[in-house]
């Protein structure tokens, strides 16, 4: 019991200090920052203003949304007030009874702001209106109406595009907390479980991986985040997955795999990050989305397999128990891939026979040279 308490204490209080740096977090966010970017390069973000607005967080987007409308209403309110002031339509100028104002019933800055709001959002209460007395007022009315349509189109389109972005669909795709290494079909494999939480499918799904680690070239160059392709498959391949139920994808650890020279004892000391990608097309919107997650050596369990989660009910329906989604079961597993392949090679040699063409069988007659 003391050992379990000590393990729990070390894991919860000292484990955070030994956490490895990740390029990709478990929920798919990239942990990278750009430094010393020139001011000219920063201006490019404003040239591509649409993508910049879409990438903003909701709090900044809503701030821009509210500021754009309130700012335009107040700015044109000042212009309408200036028109009334120049034309001497305000009560402080004591206009005559026969005086025709540019805008009816504008008595101050507040009424000018209300008229600006009514004009831009096309409310039209009928109490304040433009007369044919001033060409300036007519031009300002046309200009505000056109600019209001542009602001409405841009801001409403940005909000709609932000809501319907396929990255929100990616939130309903989940990966297992850990990856496991065990035998599958007589081969040593690295397995990961992935599930679609919606009943709608991802069309044309494709899954693959990248192994990120620091390497040194023969010339002595150190490459940080060197990428190696990791092929993941299911029993039917890695193209066009039938993603209606949770799938267990696996990578065969063969001599071409970067995991081939690793062992159960040396795996925790390795320094790598396995990033897994799932690309697909959303069935309802036909938009392409990508889901990603990552695993560090501490999250790869050697000698385990995933517990079953799919069962069949008495009514004939298939039931998925997500309580066991990331649950693992310890199984007997070779402690290294090289050992498994050497064992297979030894067994194959024992079953094979070898012919020696130079071998000649000769008969030897035994004689008794001893004479009595």
From TrEMBL:
- Which membrane topology term applies here? Multi-pass membrane protein
> What positions does the domain Inward rectifier potassium channel C-terminal occupy?
173-345
Q: Which UniProt keywords apply?
A: Cell membrane, Ion channel, Ion transport, Membrane, Potassium, Potassium transport, Transmembrane, Transmembrane helix, Transport, Voltage-gated channel
The UniProt record lists the keyword Cell membrane: yes
InterPro entries, sorted: Ig_E-set, IRK_C, K_chnl_inward-rec_Kir, K_chnl_inward-rec_Kir1.1, K_chnl_inward-rec_Kir_cyto, Kir_TM
Q: Where is this site: Role in the control of polyamine-mediated channel gating and in the blocking by intracellular magnesium?
A: 152
The organism's place on the tree of life at top rank: Eukaryota
Instruction: Tell me where the transmembrane regions lie.
Output: 64-86, 137-161
Q: Which Pfam families would you find in this protein's record? A: IRK, IRK_C
What's the gene? KCNJ1
What is the protein named? ATP-sensitive inward rectifier potassium channel 1
Q: Give the organism, scientific name.
A: Acinonyx jubatus
Catalytic activity, per the record? K(+)(in) = K(+)(out)
User: Domain Potassium channel inwardly rectifying transmembrane: where?
Assistant: 24-166
**Protein's GO biological process:** potassium ion import across plasma membrane; regulation of monoatomic ion transmembrane transport
A GO term for molecular function: ATP-activated inward rectifier potassium channel activity
What family does the entry list?
Belongs to the inward rectifier-type potassium channel (TC 1.A.2.1) family.
- Gene Ontology CC: monoatomic ion channel complex; plasma membrane
Q: Where in the cell is it found?
A: Cell membrane; Membrane
């Amino acid at each position: 019991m003391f050992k379990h308490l000590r393990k729990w204490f070390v894991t919860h209080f000292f484990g955070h200090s030994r956490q490895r740096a990740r390029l990709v977090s478990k929920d798919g966010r990239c942990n990278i920052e750009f430094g010393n970017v020139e001011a000219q390069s920063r201006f490019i973000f404003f040239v591509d203003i649409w993508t910049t607005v879409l990438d903003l967080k909701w709090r900044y987007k809503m701030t821009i949304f509210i500021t754009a409308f309130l700012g335009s209403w107040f700015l044109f309110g000042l212009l309408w007030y200036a028109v009334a002031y120049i034309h001497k339509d305000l009560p402080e100028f004591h206009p005559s009874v026969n005086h025709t104002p540019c805008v009816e019933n504008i008595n101050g800055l507040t009424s000018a702001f209300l008229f600006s709001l009514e004009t831009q959002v096309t409310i039209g209460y009928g109490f304040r209106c433009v007369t044919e007395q001033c060409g300036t007022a007519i031009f300002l009315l046309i200009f505000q109406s056109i600019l209001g349509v542009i602001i409405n189109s841009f801001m409403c389109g940005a909000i709609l595009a932000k809501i319907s972005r396929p990255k929100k669909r990616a939130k309903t795709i989940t990966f297992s907390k850990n990856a496991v290494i065990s035998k599958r079909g007589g081969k040593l494999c690295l397995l990961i479980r992935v599930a679609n939480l919606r009943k709608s499918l991802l069309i044309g799904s494709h899954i693959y991986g990248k192994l990120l680690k620091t390497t040194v070239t023969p010339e002595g160059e150190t490459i940080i985040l060197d990428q190696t392709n990791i092929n993941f498959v299911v029993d039917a391949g890695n193209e066009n997955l039938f993603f209606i139920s949770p799938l267990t994808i696996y990578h065969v650890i063969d001599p071409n795999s970067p995991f081939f020279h690793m062992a159960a004892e040396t795996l925790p000391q390795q320094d790598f990050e396995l990033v897994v990608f799932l690309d697909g097309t959303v069935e309802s919107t036909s938009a392409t989305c990508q889901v990603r997650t990552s695993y560090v050596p501490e999250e790869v369990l050697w000698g385990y397999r995933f517990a079953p989660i799919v069962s069949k009910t008495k009514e004939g329906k298939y039931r998925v128990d997500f309580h066991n989604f990331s649950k693992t079961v310890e199984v007997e597993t070779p402690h290294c891939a090289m050992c498994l392949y050497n064992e297979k090679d030894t067994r194959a040699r024992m079953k094979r026979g070898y012919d020696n063409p130079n071998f000649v069988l000769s008969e030897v007659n035994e004689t008794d040279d001893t004479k009595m």
